[in-house]
Write a structure and sequence with these properties.
Structural class: alpha/beta
Number of helices: 8
Order of helices and strands: HHEHEHEEHEHEHEH
Helix content: 40-55%
Distance between the termini: 45 Å
Number of domains: 2
Number of strands: 7
CATH architecture of the largest domain: 3-Layer(aba) Sandwich
Radius of gyration: 25 Å
CATH topology of the largest domain: Rossmann fold
Strand content: 5-15%
Strand order of the largest sheet: 4-3-2-1-5-6-7
Largest sheet: 7 strands, parallel
């Protein structure tokens, strides 16, 4: 986006870079300086309006574009390229993860502060998992994901990060083994890697992304598309309301069977979470799910 700044001003105002506007008091300025202040304020407002307008226009363009018919040349030049990009992500994921051994994936919010109790619990769970012979996989970002990788790194175990490119430019955290960091453009490819190479899911408190991974795993197991593996929700206070809704509404309305709830284990402590994983595999051979 090219913004037309006033000719007398050599650079965009500080607010354009996410900083505060210039702290200039008109009452302390001469008439000429006051006019400069007004011009700077106007430039700031114009920049904000153009950025907001640009965002709305981008969204509208995407919606309109979805309804436009494509000819064969357009399909070959765009959709075909996407196919090869998707294939390349699958190939890289399979090659790097094929020999990592038994791992458990830890999910949770990217917004969790390092001082939060959820962060500390996730770190301790990862630490204990390594001591019980598992590697740890996370989404590779900050928050709970960072806590999981940090715990695995601290214990000297395998620390895997499956990062995703997002508009806010999520980067891999510093606790991932360098050779075990993979970045994806496509969520669905990344989700295949989580399921294929995980022997269990530890689900910490999180938002839509965490819910997406949880329900994906439950659906695949329920429909027998993959073998069963342990799914552990950590935090009775956080997840309890959702479980009650499952029982009262989903089971009550016959949207799921009561037995489907047995796929979920609800715990509070790191020891309980790791015990669920250990107990499940005490009678099974560890192997990928596909």
């Amino acid at each position: 986006m090219h913004l037309q700044w006033p000719l007398w001003f050599s650079a965009p105002p500080l607010s354009f870079y996410g900083k505060a506007d210039y702290d200039i008091k008109p009452s302390k300025l001469s008439r000429s300086r006051h006019s400069v202040y007004i011009s700077i304020s106007n430039a700031n407002n114009m920049a904000k309006e153009k950025i907001n307008k640009g965002s709305s226009e981008d969204e509208e363009l995407k919606i309109r574009k979805a309804f436009v018919d494509k000819d064969w040349a357009q399909i070959k030049s765009s959709d075909s390229w996407v196919i090869f990009k998707v294939m390349s992500e699958f190939v890289e994921g399979f090659e790097k993860l094929a020999k990592i051994g038994p791992c458990v994936t830890i999910f949770g919010s990217a917004r969790t502060d390092p001082h939060h109790s959820y962060y500390k619990i996730a770190e301790e769970i990862a630490f204990e998992l390594v001591h019980h012979g598992y590697g740890v996989i996370t989404g590779g970002g900050p928050g709970i994901m960072e806590a999981g990788n940090k715990g695995a790194h601290r214990a000297g175990g395998k620390s895997v990060g499956l990062n995703i490119f997002l508009p806010h430019e999520q980067k891999g955290n510093i606790y991932i083994d360098p050779e075990k960091l993979i970045s994806f453009d496509y969520f669905f490819v990344r989700k295949v890697m989580f399921v294929k190479y995980s022997q269990g899911f530890i689900v910490m408190p999180g938002g839509f992304g965490t819910m997406d991974e949880l329900t994906e795993a439950l659906t695949l197991i329920q429909t027998k598309k993959i073998g069963r593996f342990p799914i552990v929700l950590v935090g009775r206070e956080f997840w309890g309301g959702m479980i009650d809704w499952f029982k009262q509404v989903l089971v009550g309305e016959k949207m799921i069977d009561a037995d489907d709830l047995n796929l979920i284990n609800l715990v509070d402590s790191p020891d309980e979470a790791v015990k669920v994983i250990d107990d499940f595999y005490s009678k099974y051979l560890l192997s990928p799910n596909f």
